[in-house]
Specification:
The complex is a heterotetramer of chains A (about 375), B (about 230), C (about 150) and D (about 375).
Chain A: H1 8-11, E1 27-31, E2 43-49, E3 52-59, H2 67-71, H3 76-84, H4 91-106, H5 112-140, H6 144-165, E4 174-175, E5 178-179, H7 187-210, H8 213-219, H9 227-232, H10 238-242, H11 249-252, H12 273-295, E6 317-325, E7 328-336, E8 345-349, H13 351-362, H14 368-378, H15 382-386
Helix pairs in contact in A: 3-4, 4-5, 5-6, 5-12, 5-14, 6-7, 7-12, 12-14, 13-14
Chain C: H1 3-11, E1 18-19, E2 27-30, H2 35-44, E3 52-61, E4 66-74, E5 81-89, E6 94-96, H3 105-116, E7 119-121
Parallel strand pairs in C: 2-5, 6-7
Antiparallel strand pairs in C: 1-2, 3-4, 4-5
Chain D: H1 3-10, H2 18-25, H3 30-66, H4 82-92, H5 103-121, H6 138-159, H7 163-194, H8 199-204, H9 211-214, H10 218-233, H11 245-248, H12 258-283, H13 296-304, H14 307-326, H15 334-362
Helix pairs in contact in D: 2-3, 3-4, 3-12, 4-12, 5-6, 5-12, 6-7, 7-10, 7-15, 10-12, 10-15, 12-14
The chains are: A alpha+beta (about 375), B alpha/beta (about 230), C alpha/beta (about 150), D mainly alpha (about 375).
Chain lengths: ~375, ~230, ~150, ~375
C-alpha cells in the first residue's frame, strides 16, 4: 500500500502558457484569509474561468487553536469555556452539548426547571444567531442596512443574556448539573416584550430583504444542493433541511423539554440558497413559538443540582452526545479512562465543518458573486470549523 | 529631501510655528479619521468590528465606520481574535501592505497574549505584538463594544500627542490600555511622557526591517508563493 | 431496530465485526481490512441504510500502541445510530479510505491525517487540513512534543 | 406663462457664460481672457472640494439615519468637520505604488477618473448666469466626457497587478459601456423635445413645463431609464459590482492608497452630483422654479426663490434618491445586470425614443401653448 501525501501547491499550479497567446486561461484567485466573505478567516482558492467558478478549494485552519488537545489537559468543567469559543454565535448550545454528554456519562440527573431554562435560553440564542445571520447575509449581498438592522436586534436579545448571564458572547452558562445563574424575576416579562418586538421586526425583514426582487434573483435557483448530496456530505441543520430532509435533533431525539412543546420542523423543497434563507427565517418564527410556550411554564426548583465546583467523575469508556445548534448537529465524543480528571480525548463534531464542504459540491459552475450568496446561505462560523 | 524639509523649515525664523501648527492639523485629522481594517478572526470580530458599528454603539460617531477591506486604505488594524501560526505571516503581510501612518489595536485577550489558549495550544501566537508593533491593547474576552471605544479614544490621544512632521517615520510606542486598578493615564502622564520620549520612541522605518517577522514573511513567501 | 438488535444484525453479516464494549451507544469493532466492505454494506443494505457519516475521528491509545478510528453513522431512513471502530498500529497507521462511500469522509479523513498522521489508502486528495503543509509531527498524538507549546503549570 | 416671460418683462438679463466672456475678451486682451479662465478653474476646483466633502458627509449622515444610527458626531458640531479630517488625512497618507504595478499607469489612472468627472462640471447650467461654458453640443459633450471615466477605472484595475482589481475593472468596463447606451437614449428623447443639444437651451425649453411630465409618459419613462442607467454608470448600489466590497475586497481601487484612492473616492461622489444635476437639468427643468399654470400668487412666490437654489434643491433631492437606492437594495450579479440592460432597458429605450419622435412630429405635448 502506498499513500501519496499531497500539498496545496500540487493542486494550485499556475496555468501553463497556452499555445496561442489569445487562448483563455483558467486562473486561481484567493478569497481570504483576509476577505470580507471570510467571516473570520477562511481561505477559498477559486479556480476561475473568467467569472465562472470551476472549482473551490477551501483551506481552513487559520484559527485552528487545537481545542481538542487543550481539552485533554482540562477537567470537564474547564472544557466548557472552550466550547464557547468554537461556534461563538451558539455558545449556549455548545455549552449544553458538552454538559449533556458529561451528564449522560456521569449519570447526573437534572430537574425540569433546569431543562426548561436551558431550552428557553437555547431558543433565544438560536433567534439571536439567525438574526445575526440575516444581517450578515444582507451585508454580503450588498444591502448594508440589513446588516445594521440585524445587529440592532441581536443587541436587544443580547441584553437579555447580559442581564441573566453577565456575558454578551462567550456565555459559559450551561454547566454539567445545571445552569450558572438563576433567571431573574423580571425575565419572563422582558422575554414577552422581546417576542412582541421580534415578531414585528421579522415582518420588517421580509419587507426589506425577503420581498426584494434583487435578493430573490440572487438566491433563487442558485447553489442547488440535492438531498442525497447533502446527506453524503454530512450536512446538518438548516443546510440539510433546506434540501428537504426533515432531520432536526429537537424532533428526532428530543432533549431538554423539546418533547413538551409544539413546533414544526421547517424544510425546503429545492435546496437552493433561497430555501436555506427561508428555512432560517421560518425557524425564527418557530423559535418564537417555542419561547412563547415555555416562558410561562418554567417550573420551580433549584437551578443547579450539583454543588458548584464539585468534581465530576466520568466513567471509563466512550461517550457521545449531540444536539441541534443554530447551524446543525454538534456532537461531542468524550473518551475517559475512568482514572484521571481530564478526559483521554475530546472530539467535537462541529456542524460548520461538514457544512463547509458543501461549498465544494455546490459552487462549480456559478459566478464569483454566487459564491458569496452560497457561503452566506451556508452560514459558516469559521472558528467552529477549525476548532 | 521631503523628509528633511520640515527640519529645514524649523530653523527658519517663524518656521517652528508653522511646523507646530501643521503638526496640530495633521494630528487632528489623523486622530479624527481612523478607518479600521477589519481583521477579525474570531469571536472578537463580532463584538469589536460588527457590534461597534451597529446602531446601539455606532462607531460612525467617531468617523470610524468606513471599514476598509483593502489594507492599502486602512489606518489602523483591529486585530480581533486569536492569531495562530498559520495566520501570523499573512497578518504581517497585511500590516506591511498598510500605508503609513498605520496603527494596530489588539483587542481581546487572544490577541494580547493568547488568552484562553495560552497553554497547551500548539498553534497559538501568544500576543500579536510578537508579529506587529501594537499601539493599543483592549483587554477582555471578548471586550465589550464600549471597550473598543476606549481603545479608539486612547489611540486618538496617542496620535494627538505623539506625532510630528519634524521627525517623519518616528512615532511613539504603545499606551497600555490595561493599567492597574485605580490608576488612570492622567495620573502617570508625566512619567509616561518621559519614558516615551527617552527610550521608547520607535523608528518605524527601521523597525519594519529589523523585525524578525519581516524575515520570516520573506522566507514564507519564497516558499509558498509562485513567481510568475 | 433497537440498539442491540442492530449490533447483532451487523455482526450477522459475517464481515468480522464484533461488539465494542464501553460505548454508550451501539458500537462495533472491525479490522481495517474489512472496513471498506462493511462500510459499503452499511451504506447500501436497505435494512441498514446508513446514509450519513456524522463524524469520524481517532483516539490515540498510547499504552496499547494503537489508534482507534471512530466512524459515527446515522440513518435518516430508519433513524438509528451506529458507531464503528477500527484499530491500527501506531507504528504504521494505514487504513483504507471510505471517502468513496460517504463524500464527507474525504475531509474528515484529512483532518485525522493532519492531527494524527493516520494515512488513508486510496484517498483522492490526502493533504494537511488545518496546519501548514510543512508542519512537523502530528499534534493530537499523545507523544507529540513542541518546544513552543506551553504546558499548563500544575 | 413661465419664468422666461417674467424674465423678459424684467428686461434683458446678462446671460453670458464665463467662457463667452473669455472668448469676447480674447481679441482685445489676452490677459483678461486668461483671468476669466483662471476664475473658472478656481470655481471648479472649489466646487469639487466642497461638493466632494459635502456629499460624503451627506451620505454618511443619510446612511446613518437610514440605519438607526447617528453618523459622524464627534468632529465639529454634528460631525460636519469629519470629511475635512478625512480629506487632510488622505492627503498626507503614504502613497503606495506596488512594486510590480505598471507604475506610470498606476499614477495617472485616478487623474483620468477625476478629470472626466470634473470636466462635466464646466458645462452644467447652475443658474441663468452661472455657467462656465454653454457648449452648443452640451449633451454630446457630457456623454463623451463622462465616458472617459471608465478609462481611469480600467487603467487603475489593470495597472495594479492584482487579480481582484482586474476583475473589478473588467466588470466596470462592461457595465459602464453598456449602460451608457441606455443613458444616451434617454437623453436623446429630451434632445428631441428640446430641439437643441445645448444644456442651457434645454433648460430654457422647459419654461412651460418640465420634460418629465410635459411629454406624456415618454418623459417619465426616459427619466426612469436615465436614473437607472446612470446609477449603473457611476457604480452605485445596486450596481456597485466593480467595487463590490464583499466580493472583490475593494474592486479596481484595491491597491490604491492615500491621495490617489481619495481621487477615486471623490470622483464617485462628484459623479453622483453630476448625474443628479444632469437629471435635474434635462428632466426637472434645471434652475426653473416649480410653477403651476393659473396660480399667479403661488408662481410669484416660487419665482422669488433664486434659480441656483432651485437647481441645488432638485439636485439634492435626486442625490438623496440615489442614496436611498444604495442603502436599500442588495447588489445585482454581473450577468443579471447585463441582462437588465440589454434585454430590458435598451429595447424600452428604443421604443421610448421612437415614441418621443412621434410626439415631436405631432407636437403632442402638454402645456404646448407656445
Amino acid at each position: 500500500m502506498t499513500v501519496t501525501i499531497k500539498t496545496l501547491n500540487d493542486l494550485v499550479r499556475p496555468p501553463t502558457a497556452a499555445d496561442s497567446p489569445m487562448a483563455t486561461q483558467e486562473y486561481f484567485v484567493n478569497m481570504g484569509p483576509q476577505h470580507p466573505i471570510a467571516h473570520g478567516s477562511l481561505r477559498l482558492v477559486l479556480r476561475l474561468d473568467g467569472e465562472t467558478v470551476r472549482q473551490v478549494i477551501p483551506v481552513p485552519g487559520f484559527v485552528h487553536r487545537g481545542l481538542e488537545k487543550m481539552a485533554e489537559h482540562l477537567n470537564p468543567r474547564q472544557i466548557i469555556h472552550l466550547t464557547d469559543r468554537m461556534d461563538y454565535l451558539s455558545a449556549l448550545m455548545n455549552n449544553w452539548a458538552f454538559s449533556k454528554t458529561v451528564e449522560k456519562a456521569a449519570g447526573i440527573a437534572t430537574s425540569a426547571r433546569i431543562e426548561t431554562i436551558r431550552t428557553l435560553m437555547a431558543e433565544l440564542q438560536r433567534l439571536q444567531s439567525h438574526v445575526l445571520w440575516w444581517g450578515v447575509l444582507g451585508m454580503d449581498l450588498g444591502a448594508l442596512t440589513a446588516f445594521l438592522y440585524g445587529f440592532r436586534d441581536r443587541e436587544i436579545i443580547g441584553r437579555l443574556f447580559e442581564e441573566t448571564i453577565g456575558a454578551r458572547l462567550t456565555m459559559n452558562y450551561i454547566q454539567p448539573g445545571g445552569v450558572m445563574y438563576d433567571i431573574r424575576a423580571d425575565f419572563a416579562a422582558k422575554v414577552k416584550e422581546l417576542i412582541k418586538y421580534l415578531t414585528r421586526v421579522i415582518g420588517e425583514y421580509d419587507i426589506l430583504l425577503s420581498g426584494n426582487a434583487i435578493l430573490q434573483e440572487r438566491l433563487r435557483r442558485i447553489g442547488i444542493l440535492s438531498a442525497e448530496r447533502a446527506l453524503s456530505l454530512g450536512c446538518t441543520g438548516p443546510v440539510l433541511r433546506g434540501s428537504g430532509v426533515p432531520y432536526d435533533l429537537r424532533k428526532v431525539e428530543p432533549y431538554g423539554v423539546y418533547d413538551k412543546v409544539e413546533f414544526d420542523v421547517v424544510i425546503g423543497t429545492q435546496g437552493d440558497c433561497w430555501d436555506r434563507y427561508c428555512v432560517r427565517i421560518e425557524e425564527m418564527r418557530q423559535s418564537i413559538r417555542i419561547v412563547e410556550q415555555l416562558i410561562d411554564a418554567v417550573p420551580e426548583g433549584p437551578h443547579m443540582v450539583m454543588k458548584f465546583g464539585a468534581k465530576i467523575k466520568i466513567p471509563e469508556g466512550m461517550h457521545y452526545g449531540h444536539l441541534e445548534t443554530a447551524r446543525g448537529v454538534l456532537g461531542v465524543l468524550l473518551v475517559s479512562d475512568g482514572k484521571s480528571d481530564a478526559p483521554q480525548r475530546v472530539h467535537f463534531r462541529s456542524p460548520n465543518f461538514n457544512n463547509l464542504w458543501a461549498i465544494t459540491a455546490i459552487a462549480p459552475g456559478w459566478r464569483i458573486a454566487d459564491i458569496i450568496a452560497i457561503q452566506s446561505s451556508l452560514d459558516l462560523v469559521i472558528p467552529d470549523i477549525d476548532r | 529631501m521631503t523628509d528633511r524639509l520640515p527640519a529645514i523649515v524649523e530653523r527658519v525664523p517663524g518656521g517652528a510655528i508653522l511646523v507646530t501648527s501643521l503638526d496640530a492639523l495633521m494630528n487632528w485629522s489623523r486622530s479624527n479619521s481612523l478607518w479600521p481594517l477589519a481583521f477579525g478572526t474570531k469571536c472578537c470580530a463580532i463584538e469589536m468590528l460588527m457590534a461597534t458599528g451597529a446602531p446601539h454603539q455606532d462607531m460612525s460617531r467617531f468617523g470610524a465606520e468606513v471599514a476598509r477591506q483593502s489594507p492599502r486604505q486602512a489606518d489602523f488594524m483591529v486585530v480581533a481574535g486569536a492569531i495562530v501560526k498559520k495566520m501570523a505571516p499573512r497578518m504581517r503581510m497585511l500590516y506591511e501592505q498598510m500605508a503609513e501612518p498605520r496603527y494596530v489595536m489588539a483587542t481581546g485577550s487572544c490577541a494580547i497574549s493568547g488568552g484562553p489558549f495560552m497553554y497547551n495550544s500548539y498553534t497559538i501566537v501568544r500576543g500579536v505584538d510578537e508579529i506587529v508593533p501594537v499601539d493599543v491593547y483592549v483587554p477582555g474576552c471578548p471586550p465589550r463594544p464600549e471597550a473598543f471605544f476606549w481603545g479608539l479614544l486612547a489611540l486618538q490621544r496617542l496620535i494627538k500627542q505623539g506625532e510630528t512632521i519634524g521627525r517623519p517615520g518616528i512615532r511613539r510606542k504603545p499606551v497600555l490600555a490595561a493599567l492597574p486598578q485605580g490608576i488612570t493615564i492622567e495620573d502617570i502622564r508625566e512619567e509616561v511622557r518621559r519614558v516615551l520620549e527617552e527610550e521608547n520612541v520607535v523608528d518605524v522605518a527601521h523597525e519594519a526591517h529589523a523585525k524578525i517577522w519581516t524575515e520570516r514573511v520573506k522566507q514564507w513567501m519564497a516558499k509558498h508563493l509562485y513567481k510568475p | 431496530m433497537d440498539g442491540q438488535a442492530l449490533v447483532q444484525a451487523v455482526i450477522g453479516l459475517g464481515l468480522g465485526a464484533r461488539n465494542r464494549e464501553k460505548v454508550d451507544r451501539p458500537a462495533l469493532e472491525v479490522s481495517p481490512e474489512n472496513l471498506p466492505a462493511l462500510a459499503k454494506r452499511l451504506r447500501q443494505d436497505p435494512a441498514l441504510a446508513f446514509d450519513m457519516l456524522l463524524d469520524h475521528t481517532a483516539i490515540d491509545w498510547l499504552a496499547e500502541g494503537v489508534f482507534e478510528l471512530v466512524y459515527n453513522l446515522y440513518s435518516t431512513v430508519h433513524g438509528h445510530h451506529l458507531m464503528v471502530t477500527t484499530r491500527v498500529p501506531r507504528g504504521s497507521p494505514v487504513v483504507p479510505t471510505v471517502s468513496d462511500i460517504w463524500e464527507i469522509a474525504q475531509w474528515q479523513e484529512r483532518e485525522v491525517f493532519d492531527l494524527f498522521g493516520v494515512q488513508y489508502d486510496g484517498h483522492p486528495d490526502l493533504r494537511r487540513l488545518f496546519l501548514e503543509d510543512d508542519w512537523p509531527g502530528f499534534p493530537l498524538r499523545k507523544d507529540y512534543t513542541d518546544e513552543d507549546m506551553l504546558r499548563l503549570p500544575k | 406663462m413661465g419664468l422666461m416671460t417674467i424674465l423678459a418683462a424684467a428686461g434683458p438679463w446678462p446671460v453670458k457664460t464665463v467662457a463667452a466672456r473669455a472668448a469676447d475678451a480674447l481679441p482685445g486682451s489676452l490677459w483678461l481672457s486668461v483671468a476669466y479662465m483662471a476664475i473658472a478653474l478656481l470655481a471648479v476646483a472649489g466646487l469639487v472640494a466642497v461638493l466632494g466633502m459635502g456629499l460624503i458627509y451627506f451620505e454618511r449622515k443619510v446612511s446613518g439615519h437610514f440605519q438607526c444610527r447617528l453618523g459622524p458626531m464627534r468632529v465639529g458640531p454634528h460631525g460636519i468637520l469629519q470629511t475635512v479630517a478625512d480629506t487632510v488625512k488622505l492627503l498626507i497618507k503614504e502613497d503606495i505604488i506596488p512594486q510590480k504595478a505598471d507604475q506610470a499607469m498606476h499614477l495617472v489612472a485616478p487623474m483620468f477618473s477625476m478629470a472626466a468627472t470634473v470636466l462635466v462640471l464646466a458645462v452644467l447650467p447652475y443658474s441663468p448666469v452661472l455657467q462656465i461654458a454653454d457648449v452648443n453640443i452640451g449633451v454630446l459633450y457630457v456623454t463623451a466626457v463622462s465616458g472617459l471615466g471608465v478609462i481611469g477605472i480600467l487603467l487603475g484595475g489593470w495597472s495594479s497587478n492584482n487579480k481582484w482589481s482586474l476583475i473589478g475593472a473588467m466588470r466596470a468596463a462592461a457595465q459602464i459601456i453598456s449602460y451608457e447606451i441606455s443613458a444616451t437614449l434617454a437623453l436623446l428623447a429630451v434632445v428631441l423635445f428640446a430641439g437643441t443639444l445645448s444644456l442651457a437651451g434645454i433648460v430654457q425649453s422647459q419654461a412651460d413645463g418640465w420634460w418629465i411630465w410635459r411629454a406624456p409618459g415618454v418623459g417619465l419613462l426616459a427619466f426612469i431609464i436615465y436614473i437607472i442607467a446612470s446609477t449603473a454608470e457611476i457604480n452605485r448600489t445596486p450596481f456597485d459590482i466593480p467595487e463590490g466590497e464583499s466580493e472583490l475586497t475593494a474592486g479596481f481601487h484595491t491597491e490604491y492608497s492615500g491621495l490617489r484612492f481619495s481621487f477615486f473616492f471623490l470622483a464617485e461622489f462628484i459623479n453622483m452630483f453630476v448625474v443628479a444635476a444632469l437629471t435635474a437639468t434635462l428632466f426637472l427643468g434645471g434652475w426653473m422654479p416649480f410653477m403651476i399654470g393659473g396660480l399667479e400668487t403661488f408662481n410669484g412666490v416660487m419665482a422669488l426663490v433664486p434659480p441656483s437654489l432651485w437647481f441645488l434643491l432638485k439636485t439634492a433631492a435626486l442625490v438623496f434618491v440615489l442614496m436611498w437606492f444604495r442603502w436599500t437594495f442588495p447588489r445585482l450579479r454581473v450577468d443579471q445586470m447585463m441582462r437588465l440592460e440589454w434585454k430590458f432597458l435598451l429595447p424600452i429605450g428604443f421604443v421610448n425614443l421612437t415614441a418621443a419622435a412621434v410626439l415631436v412630429l405631432f407636437n403632442a405635448y402638454f402645456f404646448s401653448g407656445r
